[in-house]
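[Automated response] Your request has been received and processed.

Submitted sequence:
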Amino acid sequence: MNATIKSGTNSFHGTVWEFFRNDKMDAADYFERRIDTTAGTNTTKKGELRQNQYGFSIGGPVVIPHLFDGRNKVFFFGDYEGFRRRLGVPHTGGVPTAQERSSGYTNFQELLQTGTQTDALGRTMPFGTILDPATTRTAGSGVVRDPFTTTPACVGAGAGFTYSLATCPDLNILPADRLDPNAIALLDLYPAPTGSGISSNYAVSPKLKEDRQSFDTRLDVNFSSKDQTFSERASMDARVFAQHDQRRTRRPELSPHDTCFSRGKQPH
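Generated structure:
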């Protein structure tokens, strides 16, 4: 695409304008929608949006009273645009559930599903069952492991046994002394979930800060009807930052610190 800056004219002309947006007048982003399935209520919190895009332009002949009259000979044109935007950018992800966190990361019964699977001993267990690596052994036609449980009837159960919460009430509850304190400390860095479920249960809208300003200038000189020249200059300074609330977004991909994505100046 080719673009050119228009020339000034024999009379003075100018414009002033502004384009304005605000979250008070917009609907929530689709990915910000949150429904409390227990209460059946909409708990959506819209991200911030503050946008102001404004500027002016002016052009005409170069006139210096009592010294120089540039009508039909020397013309100028210039414009300026400012852009200020604060925009909540939706991010979603999975974090430890409230049950996992409150149990000290020992209770993972929320992982259990309705479907089942069968191991090499013919034992049936729900999908999502966590197996104890310390019980790994060769049996039947392959390698087997026992699920985490301390219920006497379920510990080391033989061929054909069916594991379920009804027969093994503490299925998928891990021994606290088998957990690494360093791993727990890392898990505690994740924020609390904002939704239910074991996946996509966290949503946040960190604020994107974008400031930009640009201007263009042009000077035209007509020496004669056959000889003309012009000079122009354009410049833009843009700064984009992502601002995150350190209290809520301490995930690796959501740094608590302001991160400068781009900053550029483009003279022509």
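Summary generated for your ticket: Residues 245-268 have pLDDT under 50 and may be disordered. The chain has two helices and 16 strands.
If you did not submit this request, please reply to this message.
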